[in-house]
Design brief:
Blueprint: H1 4-11, E1 18-24, E2 29-40, E3 44-48, H2 53-57, E4 67-74, E5 81-94, E6 98-103, E7 109-112, E8 119-129, E9 135-144, E10 148-154, E11 164-171, E12 174-189, E13 194-201, H3 205-220
Antiparallel strand pairs: 1-2, 1-4, 2-3, 3-6, 4-5, 5-6, 5-7, 8-9, 8-11, 9-10, 10-13, 11-12, 12-13
Amino acid sequence: MSSEKDFNTLDNLTCNTEVHLQLLTPTSNIRLRSRLIGVDPGRAVILAHGNDKAWRGASAFITDKQSVIVRVVSSDEQDANILAFRSNIHQVISIVGRWLVIRYPKELQTVSLRQHSRIPINISANLIRIDSDEILSTGYLRDISIKGGAFVSEALASANIDSQYRLKMNFDGKEKSIAITIKNQQELDSSSRLAQYGFTLDADPEHNERLVQQIILLHLNQ
């Protein structure tokens, strides 16, 4: 259940905060990026209508009563959160610009980005060497936090504990990699030869927080 604190966080989001908007259509889910214009507590969440190629391609679905999922990162407080809710477009209006008026949600989903909070995810990734693009294994990220996470793949004979590697993922059609240090290896299933590799993130905490936000949003948008 959503708490009063969750709704207070939504009500006090800063204008121009980046918003990830997903249009739910019968054949596909259309993903757009917007920014927050404002929140009318208990009544509406107002978003900017974009004008890039993605928005123009989705124009047929940007209509009253269209079902949407809204996701936004609240990072103004010490414990940042990702807020998500399902609603629908109440109205598309033009005042000083084009805005989408989204009906205020009845329920909120909150994902905490606390330093030690391990968040379950499932994102395809490749484990590669730190100094080259050689792929050592293909698997998936199983969980993530600001401190580190877990990568699952076939057991590797060449994986060295306390050694640096990179995990490469696909972010909206662009490949990105993160530097990690493998800290432990745990066998998951001897019949399938799967193993879990616990790792730490090697970047500074501020960079790690931004990275974890991107990874969780990628997972939620799948």
